[in-house]
Each structure stands twice: as structure tokens, then as C-alpha cells.
Write a structure and sequence with these properties.
The complex is a heterodimer. By secondary structure, chain A is α/β, with parallel strands linked by helices. Chain A has one domain: P-loop containing nucleotide triphosphate hydrolases (Rossmann fold, 3-Layer(aba) Sandwich). Helix content of chain A is 32%, strand content 24%. Chain A has eight helices and nine strands. In chain A, the strands form two sheets. Chain A has a six-stranded mixed beta sheet with strand order 5-6-7-3-8-9, with helices on both faces. In chain A, strands 2-1-4 form a three-stranded antiparallel beta sheet, covered by helices on one side. In chain A, helix 6 links the parallel strand 6 and strand 7. The longest helix of chain A has 18 residues. Helix content of chain B is 71%, strand content 0%. Chain B is built from eleven helices and no strands. Classes of the chains: A alpha/beta, B mainly alpha. The interface between A and B is medium-sized, with 18 and 23 residues. Bound molecules: adenosine-5'-diphosphate and magnesium ion (MG). Magnesium ion binds next to helix 2 of chain A. The site of magnesium ion (MG) has 2 residues of chain A, from helix 2.
Chain lengths: 244, 295
């Protein structure tokens, strides 16, 4: 009955298969091609950040990975379960926090699993509260708990912190890092914040013209300030060379 | 104190075009709690609000006893009360009341069930909307009480005529508000349901019906008012029992005390129905910012 904490047992044994493999993906809205032959692999336990100008197709890619939109051409292989956190929390206002987190879980043991997930995001004491009593940051933490309670192999985050104030955002970064380290899903974080991408990700992608136009690995050794400037340049921003 | 407005809702025209309920996102207009400027606390304002009605009854009583108002025009309130007591003791009042309530309940269940079923169908399916909605809207354009002569030709003046009329009055507000409620469910939440792999039943139970519930309950409230109105009309036209029969029967003997009693009972039951509906809203919509905290 008890689920092994994902990561420990699972990642150690099975020869780890990727969380998702995208091959030659194409997606168009009418005549407008938004994704144009895109390739991408995300390993389990890998944290990937996706940067790109507004409107370049990041959300479109994420929705395709989540199975929300049809694939026009190409393949997406995501063998395990995928969980999504949207920019808006999308909590059901008529359900208590634990019922929100448990949405879609089998009834047996649902409350216990939801309670465990909520306490991981620091809200274990508010299982029966209504979503309307939460601040923006708290609501987003519940959304995170709801995603992680599924033990997903692929965690898709679409600018989940964009609407939060700066301090709350920094706290959320810490929390997400910790939770991802514990559950070890493959993560795709869509963001427009270069610093967020650098501080969270193992790998940063830049999307442009419907494909992954640039890719940077963060192995801890590189010069982060220099990477920041390069990323900004790749996004079309030519900043002065002092870091913020 | 709550602001009950049974008269406002009872005098609803036709099948009742429901007002658009304020959506969760919108700021709710706060109920009139403006005590500012009056210089009186809420308790005193409450007392003041009862002064006029009580004074009116007292004046009525005095004038009636003094013989200024003929008992054949209006009996004294105390006379109405003693009549109520007598009729209660001999059991006939309870029987008539029960008969009326039963008719209302059966008509409500039938009309509400049909309205809800059709509304759900049309809310979910564009095909069903194309097939059904225009006809329903066309029938709805008829003030349903105008159908009474035809209904009497069809059913006579028996039970089915009354139940039919109540059901007809109930079905439309429930139908309209069910469709509206389902259509207003946030598509982003429906999408969430898809992300969580909810099956169709779960999607309806966990997301669509709860999302539509505020609107459906608004429909229930309007339907209660129209049900009652339909019943009064149907019973007045022809009945061998029920409150309307009580009143019409009393008319033959100029028993205005019994007539007034029946009218007062109709009003009281209207108020009770409305407050039951409000109570339902408050308990079922505790999560809703417009219902949970206020009132
Ligand atoms: N449902 C849609 N119908 C038509 N065009 C769309 C739709 N969704 C997005 N687009 C267009 O596709 C492009 C990419 O959108 P999106 O993936 O949301 O960008 P991003 O998330 O990178 O800001 C935009 O130009 C947008 O206008
Ligand atoms: Mg986007």
C-alpha cells in the first residue's frame, strides 16, 4: 500500500527512461505555425527551464506536452503521468484544500495523501479551509501540492510564480527546489525570468521561431553572471554588464 | 435581520426571467446594512422597522371593533386568529393546507425535474441546444397563467390541472438557470479536470455541477415563487380542497375572516419557501464569497 518516496527506490533501480521525448513536433493555429519541428528530451530528475519572448509558443509547447492540445505533426512520448501547474492556481472554489489536492485520486487514502502533500508545502494545518481564504502564494503552493500528489514523472510549470510578489516568489523557488529534489520528476519550467531560470534549472532552453534555439547546461562551474548576459542577449535584451 | 421580499418575488411576471447572479469574480453589492447617518443602532432600527406594521394591525383591530369597518369588508385581526384556531381544531385547516402543499411539492418535483434534465442536456450539448432551446424559448414567451383556460379544457379542474400548471411555472426558471449555470462554468477549471484525467461522470460531479450550482439555486428560488403563484391561481379557479378552495368556499357565505386567513397563509408559506431557499443557498454555497459570510 505505501508508496515508495519517488526518486529513492525508483530512480536507483530502473535504467531511467526519459520523462518526455519530443520528436519533430509541429503545431499551428490555422496558417500560423507556432512550433516548427521542435526536438526535446527531458530526463527524470532533470530540471529544465524554458525561456522565450512572450508569444513565442512556450505555453503552446507545454500544453502539447500535457496532452491538452492535439499534435499536428511529430511525436510526444511521455510514458508516465504528467502534472501541470498553471499561472493561475485553478483551485476549485467549492472544494476544501484537501479535496482540491485529492482531485482525481482514488478515494481510498485520498485524504491522507492530500494531507501529506499539503504539509510538504507548509499548509498541513489547513486541510479543511476554503481556497478563497488563501493568499496568492498559498494558493499556488496548494496547486503545487496538487501536482506533486500524483507523483508525476513529468512536472510542467507554466509561469507559476509570475503573478506573485518578489519575496513570495523567492520563497517559492526554495520550496520548488526542495520538492523537486525529493520527488525527482522531470521538470519543464516556463518562465520569462532569466534569474529564476538560472537559479532553479539544470538546463536552460531558449525558444525562438518555433524551435529550441539555444541550450545551456548549468553544472555549477560556469560563470552565472556571464550566462545571464548571454541569455538576455539571446532573448533580444542587451543589458549593461552589471548584474542586478 | 434578513431582508425577505416574498411579495417582490411572488408578483413575478410570467415564468420569470431570472436576474443574472453576481459571479464569483465580481464584487458583490453589499446588502443594505447602511446604518450610517441614522444615528440609531441596528437593534433600534429593527424595532423601528416593525413599528408601522404593528401599528397598522392595531389600528385595523380598533377600527374593526369600533364598527368603523364592517366585518363583511374586513374582519378584525383577532377574529381571523380565532377562526384559524377553530378551523385548526376541527382539522379542516390542516387538511386544506396539506392538500395545497402536496400539490405544490408534486408540481415542483415534476417541473423541476424536467427543467433540470432539459437544462443539463442543453447546457452540455450544442446539438441538444439546437434541437430544444428555440422551442422552449418560444413557449416561455407565453405568460404561463395565460394557458389556464386551455389547461382547464385539457385536464378539467382536477388535481392534474393544478399540478400541470405548477410544473409549467417551475420548469422554465429551473431550465434557464441550469443552462446558464453550466455555460458559465470556468473553462479553465474544466481543463484542469482533463489534466487530472477525470472521467465524464467525475467531471460533472466535481466541477460542472458545483460550478453551476449558484445559478441553479437562483432558479430554485424563482421557481418556488412561481410555483406558489400558479397554485393560488389554479386553486382559486376550481377545487374541492386546498387553501384556494377554503377561500372561494368562504366567499359564498361572505366569511371574510376565512378568506383573509387563507390569504395570510399563502403569504406565510411564500415567506417560508423563500427562506428555505435562502438557507439552502447559504449552506450549499458556503464556499462562495457572495453567500458564505454575509447575511
Ligand atoms: N488558441 C489559440 N488560437 C490561436 N492562436 C493562438 C492560440 N493560443 C496561442 N496562440 C498564438 O500562438 C502564439 C504562441 O502563444 P503562446 O504559446 O501562448 O506563447 P507564450 O506562452 O510563449 O507567451 C501566440 O502568437 C498566440 O497569439
Ligand atoms: Mg505563456
Amino acid at each position: 500500500m505505501s508508496r515508495a518516496p519517488a526518486g529513492s527506490a525508483v530512480a536507483a533501480s530502473a535504467p531511467s527512461r526519459p520523462a518526455v521525448v519530443v520528436t519533430d513536433l509541429t503545431r499551428a493555429y490555422g496558417p500560423r505555425v507556432v512550433i516548427d519541428g521542435l526536438n526535446l528530451v527531458i530526463e527524470r530528475g532533470e530540471f529544465v527551464a524554458l525561456l522565450g519572448e512572450s508569444g513565442c509558443g512556450k505555453t503552446t509547447l507545454l500544453r502539447a506536452l500535457a496532452g491538452l492540445d492535439p499534435v499536428d505533426h511529430g511525436r510526444i512520448d511521455a510514458p508516465g503521468e504528467a502534472a501541470v501547474v498553471f499561472q493561475e492556481h485553478r483551485l476549485l472554489p467549492w472544494d476544501s484544500l484537501w479535496r482540491n489536492v485529492a482531485l482525481g485520486l482514488p478515494d481510498q487514502g485520498a485524504r491522507e495523501r492530500a494531507a501529506a502533500a499539503l504539509s510538504q508545502v507548509g499548509l498541513g494545518h489547513r486541510l479543511d479551509d476554503w481556497p478563497r481564504n488563501l493568499s496568492g502564494g498559498q494558493a499556488q503552493r496548494v496547486a503545487l501540492a496538487r501536482a506533486l500528489v500524483q507523483e508525476p514523472e513529468l512536472l510542467l510549470l507554466d509561469e507559476p510564480f509570475a503573478a506573485l510578489d518578489a519575496l513570495t516568489r523567492i520563497r517559492m523557488h526554495g520550496l520548488v527546489k526542495e520538492l523537486v529534489a525529493r520527488h525527482r520528476p522531470g521538470v519543464l519550467l516556463v518562465t520569462h525570468d532569466v534569474d529564476e531560470a538560472i537559479s532553479l534549472a539544470d538546463r536552460v532552453l531558449v525558444m525562438r521561431a518555433g524551435i529550441i534555439a539555444a541550450e545551456h547546461r548549468l553544472d555549477g562551474s560556469g560563470d552565472r553572471a556571464a550566462l545571464r548576459l548571454r541569455l538576455l542577449a539571446e532573448l533580444g535584451v542587451h543589458a549593461e554588464s552589471e548584474p542586478a | 435581520m434578513t431582508t425577505l421580499d416574498p411579495l417582490a418575488s411572488l408578483s413575478l411576471p410570467g415564468a420569470g426571467v431570472p436576474p443574472r447572479r453576481v459571479l464569483p469574480k465580481a464584487v458583490s453589492p453589499s446588502p443594505s446594512r447602511h446604518t450610517a447617518g441614522s444615528g440609531l443602532g441596528p437593534y433600534r432600527l429593527f424595532v423601528v422597522s416593525w413599528l408601522a406594521p404593528v401599528a397598522l394591525v392595531v389600528v385595523w383591530e380598533v377600527l374593526a371593533r369600533a364598527g368603523w369597518i364592517s366585518p363583511q369588508v374586513l374582519p378584525a385581526p383577532s377574529k381571523v386568529l380565532t377562526t384559524a384556531w377553530k378551523l385548526t381544531l376541527n382539522g379542516s385547516l390542516l387538511l386544506d393546507l396539506g392538500t395545497s402543499l402536496l400539490r405544490a411539492a408534486v408540481g415542483f418535483a415534476i417541473g423541476g425535474g424536467i427543467g433540470f434534465a432539459l437544462g443539463t442536456l442543453v447546457g452540455f450539448s450544442r446539438l441538444a441546444e439546437a434541437a430544444i432551446d428555440r422551442s422552449v424559448q418560444m413557449i416561455r414567451a407565453i405568460p404561463f397563467l395565460a394557458l389556464l383556460p386551455l389547461v382547464i379544457v385539457w385536464f378539467g379542474v382536477g388535481e392534474s390541472q393544478k399540478i400541470f400548471l405548477v410544473a409549467l411555472g417551475v420548469a422554465f426558471p429551473i431550465y434557464i438557470n441550469t443552462v446558464l449555470g453550466i455555460r458559465q462554468v470556468d473553462p479553465k477549471l474544466v481543463e484542469l479536470g482533463r489534466v487530472r484525467n477525470l472521467g465524464p461522470i467525475q467531471l460533472i460531479r466535481r466541477i460542472i455541477l458545483p460550478g453551476a450550482l449558484p445559478s441553479i439555486l437562483t432558479g430554485v428560488r424563482y421557481a418556488l415563487a412561481t410555483a406558489w403563484l400558479a397554485l393560488v391561481v389554479a386553486e382559486t379557479i376550481g377545487a374541492q380542497s386546498g387553501l384556494g378552495f377554503l377561500a372561494m368556499d368562504a366567499r359564498e357565505f361572505l366569511r371574510t375572516d376565512v378568506i383573509v386567513l387563507a390569504i395570510v397563509l399563502y403569504a406565510l408559506i411564500g415567506i417560508a419557501a423563500d427562506s428555505i431557499a435562502r438557507h439552502l443557498e447559504r449552506s450549499l454555497l458556503a464556499w462562495h464569497p457572495n453567500y458564505g459570510d454575509r447575511r
